[in-house]
Amino acid sequence: MTMDSILALLQSPSAWLALITLIAMEVVLGIDNLIFISILTNKLPAAMREKARRLGIGLALVMRLLLLATVSTIVKLTAPLFTVLDHGLSWRDLILIAGGAFLVWKATREIHHNVSHDAAEHAEDGKPSAVTGFASAIGQIVVLDLVFSIDSIITAVGMTEHIQIMFVAVIVAVMAMMFAARPLANFINDNPSIVMLALAFLIMIGMTLVADGLGNHVPKGYIYAAMAFSAVVEGLNMFARRRRERRAETMDGG
Fold first, then answer.
1. Below-50 pLDDT ranges, the chain
2. Domain that includes residue 64, residue range
3. Is 240 inside a domain boundary?
4. Which ranges of 11-159 does DSSP label H, i.e. alpha helix?
5. 103 falls within a domain
6. What domain count does the chain have?
7. What are the backbone dihedrals phi and psi of residue 80, each rounded to the nearest 5 degrees, phi first?
8. Is residue 9 one of the residues assigned to a domain?
9. Which residues lie closer than 8 Å to 197 by C-beta, 6 or more apart?
10. Which three-class secondary structure string do you get for 178-247?
């Protein structure tokens, strides 16, 4: 791309609008990825959590940039490979179905673990197996990074034809994920009810990915509106609980 074309792009209001819209979309799509990373890394020893989060988000950035570099190949992933029940399934559909099923399975397993209060996995000597846990967490993050990255890039391709805008939007969105990772993970870890809500979100997102792969597209606006409404309701519940706790402490102190 020549310098003149870059300057023309910088002076184009439509290019800036596309960039802002794409950044917003990438940030919203990244919320799913970030929730999964936060829940998974919170199960690691405290000393490893920050490293795992940064590595997981860094891998998400690398995957998105590599996919953008091969965008012509990514677009071909939407071409049907075979037909099932009058619906043509492409590589993208198969990846979304597999990723969505994995997300549902993982979130369901985590909910069962939280409900049954199972102990963490231990090594033979009775101590937590940190190395195995770290490797397992990164492996699962990589799988979901791939699924979310492909969905994100295909959506970006549909919004703008300028690869430069896509690169900038992806980098900005992933940097926002990097800054938000620790506060979100700490918030989820400090509020057990939020963990269950976040896991329920992941199940809903996983089912949406499966439905999308099967040709039943669910507008993401509905999904995120439901998530926002549930988060507001849970926020009110948390506020009410803290008010009751402070009132009880005041009465006990009096």
1. 118-131
2. 18-218
3. no
4. 13-41, 46-69, 71-76, 91-116, 130-157
5. yes
6. 1
7. -60, 135
8. no
9. 230, 231, 234
10. HHHHHHHHHHHHHCHHHHHHHHHHHHHHHHHHHHHHCCCCCCHHHHHHHHHHHHHHHHHHHHHHHHHHHH
In 3D space, the residue among 142, 19, 153, 152 whose CA is nearest the CA of residue 73 turns out to be: 153
For position 213, what pLDDT does the model report? 83
- What is the structure's pLDDT at 129? 42
Q: Give every CB contact of residue 227 below 8 A, 6+ residues apart in sequence.
A: 31, 201, 204
Closest CA to 146 of 209, 217, 222: 209
Using an 8 Å Cβ cutoff, are 66 and 239 in contact?
Answer: no
Tell me how long the chain is. 254
Query: Do residues 89 and 82 lie in contact, with contact meaning Cβ atoms separated by under 8 Å?
Result: yes
**Whole-angstrom distance, CA of residue 179 vs CA of residue 54:** 10
* CA 106 centroid distance within chain: 13
Domain assignment present for residue 230? The answer is no
Give the three-state DSSP class for 80.
Answer: strand
* CA proximity to 231, closest of 197, 254, 208: 197
Sign of CA dihedral 230, 179, 160, 29: negative
Q: Identify the pLDDT of residue 87.
A: 74
Q: Which two tokens stand for residue 37?
A: 């990373």
CA 254/CA 246 separation, integer angstroms: 12
The DSSP secondary-structure symbol of 122 reads: B
Residue with tokens 């034809």: 161
Burial profile 152-191: b = 16 or more Cβ within 10 angstroms, e = fewer: bbbebbeebebebbbeebbebbbeebbebbeebbeebbeb
Residue type at 191 in one-letter notation: N
pLDDT at 243: 84
